[in-house]
Amino acid sequence: FSIHNYFFAKAIDQVRPGGIVAFVTSRYTMDSKDSTSRKHMAERADLLGAIRLPNNAFKANAGTDVVSDIIFLQKRDRPANIEPAWVQLGKTEDGFAINQYFADHPEMILGVLSTESTQYGREELTVAPIEGANLADQLAEAVQHIEGQYTEVEVETPDIADVENEKHILPADPDVKNFSYTVVDGEVFYRENS
Description:
Structural class: alpha+beta
Radius of gyration: 25 Å
Oligomer: single chain
Strand content: 25-35%
Helix content: 25-40%
Shape: elongated
Distance between the termini: 51 Å
Strand order of the largest sheet: 1-3-2
Order of helices and strands: HEHHEHEEEHEEHHEE
Number of domains: 2
């Protein structure tokens, strides 16, 4: 795994089942020839959608022309041995490899697919911005196509009486210094701000 993909996998492990994780990453998470990390993520989470940003999305604040993706995943209850289409690569009309999700959902690409020469003279896929388009408006539209439902976690609030009984709160003994331990009836207690 690349360092990006390692942290994505760890983030998925850390959220509760049904929790949603959103990543901003380079296009290589989705477009890499090696599908190992995508397969790992797909076994643990459903892809709710992804948005491919134009190559100038981070130019103003990072000074870079890089194609980036926003990926939305929802953690499964348990890992599943599946390989959905987005794990694999498809092809553009020009024969360039692109994630199958974007091949199936071109509306989620916020620009025009084109090619550019790299510093090594190789042609590489890029996403040129649409002339006159407002990226914020494009994002607002694309987010409407992200599928899935978020369910709030049900948190049981314990009864105050139960909490106090569990903590065994006692009135403070004035002879015991604050932030120190004492023994009362064979049990150890800690005095803290009381």
